[in-house]
Write a structure and sequence with these properties.
Elements (H helix, E strand, L loop, with lengths): L2 E4 L17 H4 L3 E6 L2 E6 L1 H30 L4 H16 L8 H10 L6 H32 L14 H13 L21 H12 L5 H16 L1 H15 L5 H10 L11 E4 L10 H20 L7 E2 L4 E2 L11 E4 L6 E4 L5 E6 L2 E6 L1 E2 L2 E2 L2 H13 L19 H11 L3 H11 L4 E4 L11 H13 L12 E5 L5 E5 L6 H19 L19 E2 L6 H19 L1 E8 L4 H6 L4 H17 L5 E6 L8 E5 L3 H10 L6 H23 L5 H13 L5 H7 L5 E5 L21 E3 L7 E8 L3 E9 L7 H18 L4 H7 L1
Parallel strand pairs: 9-13, 13-14, 18-20, 20-22
Antiparallel strand pairs: 1-2, 2-3, 4-15, 4-21, 5-6, 7-8, 9-10, 10-16, 11-12, 14-15, 17-23, 18-19, 22-23
Length: 797
């Protein structure tokens, strides 16, 4: 009699029993054995063993590539082959009876002589190789240190635009000489300088200068006294600890910024922290949801493939000379934020071979590889279509489960610990959290509609920002969203990286989707389906009623937050950066001054303004604040609303304000900002348990106008002269203050600027559409100062 010991089999759903006959062999486990009186009867599945072999081969290939890239990056700016050149050179001089080591080789030779195991010739060879290797390492260290010293110079940023001094040209040549050839993504990391700690008095003085136009005389006098007392007494003590950290840590800001600003936040991520990226503004290459998902997912995976191989080129400024830090790319994929009661953590895996897809309240696990290779776009489309065709209903509590990631963090953390720590719930949650990324097949149709541009773009923005509050997994590094009509977008978690990093991925995805992968005439992905690929697997849940109550509470919290968001997203067609540059001014400064003018007309007052700037000129740098509301910008705005001021006077004040803004931006980029330094001093004060009235007041000031420019980093991917309709919509974020505005903008090509404005309905002071009208008028009013009428703008277009 046979006694079954182990038999594992993946049971197909009732509907798919007939169609799965071809795939059953793939879904069976590699072996089955039974115990008989005659011994053990072992039966093998050759197809399953083949899949295991190919999967293992894929893993070993990735390990080898990581090892190879680690070696190449580790010796940069030299190369592994340069070791051979140095050693051969040393050996050649030795055989020519020339000692390049000044006696060091002879000392190595004498040391080896004590072993007694080597012949004279062997000792000479080994001595030469050891000295050559040491010389090679010394040269690498010297080149790397020299490059770090060179990259610590930032004088080029403060030079007048379009003019480059001879000293800067020489400096650029030196940087290129020491930068090596064909750098990989992380090649420059060890050569980037550390973020410097500004002097306390400098930061305090810059702070006082920034708040002067926002305070009454009495308030400013009181704040000046607080600031000066801090700069003389407590400030230097806190600064000592901060200096110590800057010498020890790679970056004195980034780890504390990630922990205290992001991970320790106990409020909802949705709206408050996460941000979104939109699809192309006008173009939908296919209206088939599964096909768009197939190409989009494949393009994302191609980017991940390049990232794993470090084939993505590092971002370089100043004519491909000055590198930016690439550290934020490390956690783009296979990453999830894990909730905790006091603080969250970031879970990152080196690899993940599946994604999780959400559709109509159900979760599906989709494998990304078959026969040891990445699934092709048509094969991914096939898998997505299988999900769309699946008629099964959500399990109890499953449909709204993702609302836990949209609500408060503490209930989610407690619920996760209580109900998702074992059994099928743990397995399914692991599948979500360990997926390469999360995909939502949205049931709505979104995107720009020419017959109703305002309502359509506002709906699109709100859908990407929060959706139905239970159909995006807000903890994942990013959720890829595909709508019913083929439009797509992305919702990204903020703690692991900033928007330009996600933007770099998104630019690649949109261009690869349209210009490289493309679609067949019937709208499907190119290529053939593959019936041998196993069906996506439904994730199984057993969610008790107590947990469902927590889900409902989180959903209510999220719905209240989402319904309060007032969004206005619109393309500004009147002119773009091309005409602004004709005015010989910075496009970013132009838009920022327009925002100041619009806000004054909207509110009748000035406010503390946040503009995000990057500090990635330094290792592990993230962001710094540019305080855009300055005395100079206020003087310009007041002149613009004063009918007695002449155009000449307004232009003069505009140029002064524009130059001031550019100077503030450059200071922020080069480590001389205000807010990150004060933030870190505040953290040190908390560690030391000392109270600072100055720091407490500074960090409690609300940012009622929070702004950010989305940069276009890969212009070469979109040839807008040939394809003028393939313009990006950019992305946006929720309001930072309850009674303020959040404004994101992207300068697309030469003739378009896309704006994304957010506020809250609950605030009687704000109205996103009203602010949008003021912003359009402000842009046109400033351009009119330069004598460009609407007709001349059309000619420029």
């Amino acid at each position: 009699m046979k006694v079954p010991v182990l038999f594992l089999y993946v049971k197909p759903s009732q509907k798919h029993k007939r169609s799965l006959k071809m795939a059953e062999a793939h879904q069976a486990v590699a072996f089955q054995f039974t115990v008989t009186p005659d011994g053990i009867d072992l039966r093998l599945s050759h197809e399953a063993l083949k899949q295991i072999y190919l999967s293992g081969l894929h893993s070993w290939k990735k390990k080898f590539i990581r090892f190879k890239n680690g070696v190449i990056t580790g010796v940069y700016p030299a190369s592994p082959s340069s070791w051979l050149i140095v050693v051969v050179g040393v050996m050649s001089t030795m055989y020519a009876k020339i000692d390049p080591s000044l006696g060091i080789i002879a000392k190595i030779n004498r040391t080896l002589d004590t072993t007694g195991y080597m012949s004279s010739q062997t000792k000479n060879i080994v001595s030469g190789i050891l000295f050559g290797t040491g010389l090679w390492v010394a040269l690498i260290i010297t080149m790397r240190y020299s490059l770090k010293v060179l990259l610590s110079y930032h004088g080029w940023m403060f030079a007048e635009h379009g003019k480059m001094s001879r000293a800067t040209r020489i400096w650029m040549c030196m940087v290129k000489i020491f930068s090596g050839r064909k750098p990989m993504l992380y090649s420059f990391q060890t050569s980037l300088p550390r973020l410097p700690v500004p002097a306390v008095k400098d930061t305090v003085n810059r702070y006082l200068e920034s708040v002067r136009p926002l305070m009454k005389d009495e308030d400013f006098k009181r704040m000046t006294a607080l600031a000066q007392d801090f700069a003389v007494n407590l400030g230097p003590r806190l600064q000592w600890y901060l200096k110590l950290k800057s010498w020890w840590a790679t970056n004195y800001v980034s780890d504390w910024w990630e922990e205290y600003v992001y991970l320790r936040g106990r409020g909802p991520l949705m709206v408050n922290s996460n941000y979104y990226a939109m699809d192309l503004l006008y173009v939908i290459p296919t209206h088939l949801q599964a096909a768009r998902a197939g190409n989009g997912i494949h393009a994302i995976l191609l980017y991940r493939h390049k990232l794993d191989r470090e084939e993505i080129k590092p971002i370089l400024l100043l004519g491909s000379t000055v590198p930016l830090c690439s550290a934020q790319w490390e956690r783009m994929f296979n990453t999830c934020r894990i909730p905790g009661e006091e603080t969250d953590t970031i879970q990152h895996l080196r690899d993940s071979k599946h994604i999780v897809v959400f559709h109509k309240g159900r979760y599906f696990k989709v494998w990304l590889y078959h026969d040891g290779r990445l699934l092709k776009p048509r094969e991914i489309e096939q898998q997505i279509q299988r999900i769309l065709d699946d008629p099964s209903e959500p399990q109890a509590g499953e449909a709204k489960l993702a609302a836990l990631t949209a609500g408060e963090r503490v209930p989610w953390a407690k619920c996760r610990q209580a109900y998702f720590g074992r059994g099928k719930n743990k397995q399914s949650l692991d599948a979500v959290e360990k997926a390469a990324f999360f995909v939502t097949l949205d049931e709505t149709e979104q995107g720009y509609r020419e017959e109703d541009p305002d309502a359509s773009m506002d709906s699109y923005a709100k859908s990407l920002l929060h959706g139905r509050c239970s159909d995006r997994w807000f903890d994942k590094s990013f959720t890829f969203i595909v709508f019913k009509n083929g439009k797509m977008g992305m919702n990204a978690e903020h703690s692991w990286a900033d928007a330009p990093v996600v933007g770099h991925l998104w630019e690649y995805v949109m261009s690869t989707d349209c210009f490289q992968l493309g679609y067949a005439e019937d709208g499907h992905c190119k290529g053939d389906t593959n019936p041998n690929i196993p069906y996506p697997t439904r994730l199984q849940w057993d969610i008790p009623e107590e947990c469902q109550d927590v889900i409902e509470t989180s959903l209510n919290t999220a719905n209240i937050l989402a319904s309060d968001v007032d969004f206005h997203s619109f393309p500004f067609h009147a002119f773009g950066k091309g005409l602004i540059k004709k005015c010989r001014t910075s496009p970013d400064a132009f838009v920022q001054l327009a925002l100041q003018l619009a806000h004054y007309k909207d509110m009748g007052k000035f406010c503390l303004t946040y503009e995000a700037s990057m500090t990635r000129l330094f290792r592990e740098g993230r962001t710094e604040t540019v305080r855009s509301c300055s005395s100079e910008s206020c003087s310009f705005v007041l002149a613009m609303v004063d009918p007695t001021q002449t155009v000449k006077q307004k232009l003069r004040l505009f140029k002064i304000a524009s130059e001031k803004h550019q100077h503030l931006y450059r200071l922020a980029m080069t480590g001389s900002g205000i807010d990150r330094h004060l933030f870190c001093l505040y953290v040190v004060s908390k560690y030391l348990a000392v109270d600072s009235p100055f720091l407490k007041e500074v960090l409690s000031e609300p940012w009622r106008l929070s702004t950010s420019q989305t940069p276009q980093q890969q212009v070469e991917l979109f040839d807008l002269e040939r394809n003028p309709e393939y313009v990006s919509s950019g992305g946006g974020f929720g309001p930072v203050a309850d009674d303020g505005y959040g404004v994101s903008y992207i300068l697309v090509g030469e003739n378009l600027i896309n704006f994304h404005i957010s506020s809250k309905f609950s605030s009687p002071e704000t109205d996103s559409h009203r602010f949008g009208k003021h912003l359009k008028q402000a842009m046109n009013d400033i351009m009119a100062l330069f004598g460009f009428s609407s007709n001349s703008r059309k000619e420029f277009h």
